[in-house]
Amino acid sequence: FVFDATTGDVGQVAIDTCADPPEDQILVYIMMPKKTAGMSIEYGRSNLDKTFMFVNKRPVELKQLEKVLKRVFSEAANLEVDKYPVAVAAIFVGRKERPNLDANLEPNKQKISLACLN
Predict the structure, then answer these.
(1) 3-state class of 59 per DSSP?
(2) 67, containing H or E segment
(3) Mean pLDDT in the chain?
(4) C-beta atoms surrounding 96 within 10 Å
């Protein structure tokens, strides 16, 4: 599902992982557990071992998004102690937006920062 922040609409979309995103856009796809009874037991984790994030198909650590996923999952599950979800987040940054991507927080380029999230 895709959330359109400009209209507030939620829709379903097929993801073409071979296609590049439009040059002037940042596309974000997130797959998280559906809100159900007992979801915290089945899908809640105390660490990030089952939370996967990718930017332009490269595995990364993105602290800002990790915190958002943790908060959203914990609120949805009504948890007293926050937990990380079993989730996958894929961010595709278009060519014109790539200057806002700082991929050099560490030499291995695994920890990154997106200027639009600051």
Answers:
(1) strand
(2) helix 63-76
(3) 76
(4) 12
How far from each other are the two terminal CA atoms of the chain, in whole angstroms? 24
Amino acid at 79: L
Q: What is the pLDDT of residue 55?
A: 85
The β-bridge partners of 91 are 28, 55
Spatial CA neighbour of 19 closest among 89, 87, 88, 90: 90
* DSSP conformation class of 5: T
Which pLDDT does position 1 carry in this prediction? 47
Q: What is the DSSP letter of 28?
A: E
Length of the chain: 118
7-42, pLDDT tens digit by residue? 545 555 555 555 566 677 778 888 888 888 788 888
94: which 2 tokens?
A: 């278009």
Half-sphere exposure of 53 (CA within 13 A, CB side): 20
Q: Is the pTM of this model over 0.90?
A: no
60 contacts 112 by C-beta, under 8 angstroms: yes
Encoded tokens for 54: 């990718």
